[in-house]
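Work Package 4 report. The design task specified in the project plan requires that, given a folded chain encoded as C-alpha cells, an amino acid be chosen for each position. We show below one input record used in the internal validation round.
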C-alpha cells in the first residue's frame, strides 16, 4: 500500500533533513524512469559525503595510507546511510532499494561500472556533472567525495538534470594522470564513460602507484581528485 500522506515536497524535505542529520553532505532526487534496473522504482535518492580537507591536502603524492583508510570508512558510512534511507522510505509505506557497496560490490560490468551508477543519478538530480576524470564533480567540493543512492517509488521533488560538463578547457586532471587514462574530452549525457576515459589504463597505473606508495597493489590513486581546481578551492577554505 503506497503512503499518500506526503506531498513530494514534504517527503523530500523530511528525507533530505534526515540524511543530512545522519552524516550526508548533500542530498538530491532524480527521475530515473528510463534508467532504473528495478522495475517500478523510478525515482532515485542520491547523497554524498566529502573527504576531510586534511586528507586531500596531503595528496600531492597520491595515494596515501590516510586516503585509503578514509575511502574504506566513507564506503562503510555510505552503506549505513543507504540502509537508513531505505528503511525510512519503507517505514513510510514506499518501496526502496539501497544500492550499497555490500550489495553491488561484485556486480561490476565490463567497464568497472554498476548497471546504474550513483553518479548518473547525481547528474540527473542536478548535484553536479561528470569531470574529464570520469569522477562526479561539484562546484563546491570538486571530486573530493563519495556517492551512494537508493531507488524508490516514493514521490520526490525532482532536481533539474545537468546534462553536460562544466569543466570547459581545464586539463588539470588530464595532466595529473600519469596513466594516460583521461582523454580531455568533455562529458555529456550522450557519451559512455569509455568514450572519454580509459578505465583499464587507470586501473593499470593505480595498481603500480599503490604498490609504490602503500606497499600493496590496489585500484586506488586519487591524483585526479587532488588536481581538480574545484577540489583545490574546497581544501583551501578555512
Amino acid at each position: 500500500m503506497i503512503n499518500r500522506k506526503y506531498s513530494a515536497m514534504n517527503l523530500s524535505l523530511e528525507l533530505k533533513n534526515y540524511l543530512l542529520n545522519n552524516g550526508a553532505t548533500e542530498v538530491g532526487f532524480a527521475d530515473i524512469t528510463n534508467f532504473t534496473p528495478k522495475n517500478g522504482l523510478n525515482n532515485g535518492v542520491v547523497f554524498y559525503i566529502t573527504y576531510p580537507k586534511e586528507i586531500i591536502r596531503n595528496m600531492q603524492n597520491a595515494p596515501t595510507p590516510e586516503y585509503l583508510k578514509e575511502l574504506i570508512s566513507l564506503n562503510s558510512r555510505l552503506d549505513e546511510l543507504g540502509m537508513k534511507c531505505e528503511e525510512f522510505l519503507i517505514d513510510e509505506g514506499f518501496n526502496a532499494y539501497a544500492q550499497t557497496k555490500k550489495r553491488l560490490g561484485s556486480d561490476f560490468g565490463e567497464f568497472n561500472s554498476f548497471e546504474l551508477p550513483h553518479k548518473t543519478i547525481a547528474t540527473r538530480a542536478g548535484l553536479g556533472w561528470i569531470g574529464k576524470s570520469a569522477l562526479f564533480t561539484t562546484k563546491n567540493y570538486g571530486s573530493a567525495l563519495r556517492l551512494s543512492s537508493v531507488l524508490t517509488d516514493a514521490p520526490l521533488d525532482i532536481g533539474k538534470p545537468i546534462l553536460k560538463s562544466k569543466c570547459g578547457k581545464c586539463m588539470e586532471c588530464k595532466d595529473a594522470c600519469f596513466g594516460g587514462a583521461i582523454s580531455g574530452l568533455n562529458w555529456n549525457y550522450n557519451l559512455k564513460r569509455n568514450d572519454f576515459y580509459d578505465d583499464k589504463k587507470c586501473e593499470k597505473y593505480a595498481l603500480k602507484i599503490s604498490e609504490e606508495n602503500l606497499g600493496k597493489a590496489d585500484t586506488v590513486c586519487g591524483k585526479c581528485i587532488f588536481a581538480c581546481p574545484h577540489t583545490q578551492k574546497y581544501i583551501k577554505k578555512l
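Residues 65-91 form the longest helix (27 residues). Validation will be extended to a larger panel in the next phase.
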